[in-house]
């Protein structure tokens, strides 16, 4: 039986505290949610940090170190640190946590793009914090920047410590860019490719788009890759399950969706989302991979070689 790598993205930088009381903000909350996700079956934990006082996305090494050692000490899951940060951080800001922690995995957005979260601002009128509305509105005018030079510098610098990557592909062009880096020898198989569906400015969250992205990756990457599916919002469970049936893996978590699937009720935590997708997969006769199995499949360096 082929085993499925189940990633949980615990808090992210898209949603704001007003949107859900379950969104983890402090180091205690992020650690608790990450450990709960691992206990529910998550193989990989994809992590961002937040300012503990305001809940605003943070690239502070101190904020990351408030939870990274605790998570490592309390579970065996692979820890994956974002290099995406948020659209409103500089490249050096975004890379600071990974440079300090030298994790087994990092996320890596495979191109510059519009990344629009501003439609969320119209859904709320009573905000917990002053920064939230403007933070969302700013995405009308800012571009997430990862140029060819940026990508090359990230894979070279972080790759030198043995860190490997979750290559986040928001569109077909990102798959082609990854194929270029593979051809040039700057990235090595096995590649772990995350198809990101449903972000405004990127590919839409539909079955047709997922099929097209997989066909493109098959053509351009051949047998050099494993893929996972991330679908923003209420399509999370549907398209994630479809991705597994197509031979891939799956990512869930409050970074990607605050809801409990198509019912659109607020999910009470990351562990709840992990448990739901795991139950679905097991009903379909799939088995979730252990952390050690994921390390072997993705050629990771091991938790003993990180800096936290």
Automatic annotation (TrEMBL):
<dbReference type="GO" id="GO:0046872">
    <property type="term" value="F:metal ion binding"/>
</dbReference>
<keyword id="KW-0862">Zinc</keyword>
<keyword id="KW-0808">Transferase</keyword>
<dbReference type="InterPro" id="IPR013785">
    <property type="entry name" value="Aldolase_TIM"/>
</dbReference>
<protein>
    <submittedName>
        <fullName>3-keto-5-aminohexanoate cleavage protein</fullName>
    </submittedName>
</protein>
<keyword id="KW-0479">Metal-binding</keyword>
<dbReference type="GO" id="GO:0043720">
    <property type="term" value="F:3-keto-5-aminohexanoate cleavage activity"/>
</dbReference>
<dbReference type="Pfam" id="PF05853">
    <property type="entry name" value="BKACE"/>
</dbReference>
<dbReference type="InterPro" id="IPR008567">
    <property type="entry name" value="BKACE"/>
</dbReference>
């Amino acid at each position: 039986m082929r085993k499925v790598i189940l990633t949980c993205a615990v808090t992210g930088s898209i949603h704001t505290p007003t949107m859900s009381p379950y969104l983890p903000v402090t180091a205690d909350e992020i650690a608790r949610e990450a450990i709960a996700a691992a206990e529910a079956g998550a193989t990989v934990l994809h992590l961002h940090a937040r300012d503990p006082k305001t809940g605003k996305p943070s690239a502070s090494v101190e904020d990351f170190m408030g939870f990274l050692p605790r998570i490592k000490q309390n579970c065996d899951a692979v820890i994956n640190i974002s290099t995406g940060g948020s659209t409103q951080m500089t490249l050096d800001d975004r890379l600071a946590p990974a440079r300090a922690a030298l994790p087994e995995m990092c996320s890596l957005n495979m191109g510059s793009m519009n990344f629009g979260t501003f439609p969320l601002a119209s859904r709320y009128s009573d905000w917990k914090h002053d920064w939230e509305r403007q933070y969302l509105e700013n995405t009308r005018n800012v571009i997430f920047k990862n140029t060819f030079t940026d990508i090359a510098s990230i894979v070279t610098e972080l790759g030198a410590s043995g860190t490997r990557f979750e290559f986040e592909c928001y569109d077909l062009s990102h798959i082609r860019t990854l194929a270029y880096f593979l051809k040039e020898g700057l990235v090595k198989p096995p590649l772990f490719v995350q198809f990101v569906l449903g972000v405004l400015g990127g590919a839409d969250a539909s079955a047709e788009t997922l099929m097209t992205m997989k066909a493109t990756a098959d053509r351009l990457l051949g047998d050099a890759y494993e893929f996972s599916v991330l679908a923003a919002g209420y399509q999370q469970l549907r398209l994630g399950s479809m991705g597994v049936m197509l031979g891939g893996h799956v990512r869930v978590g409050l970074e990607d969706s605050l809801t409990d699937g198509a019912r659109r009720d607020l999910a009470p935590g990351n562990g709840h989302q992990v448990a739901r997708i795991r139950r679905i997969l097991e009903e379909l006769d799939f088995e979730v991979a252990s952390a050690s199995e994921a390390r072997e499949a993705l050629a990771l360096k091991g938790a003993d070689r990180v800096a936290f």
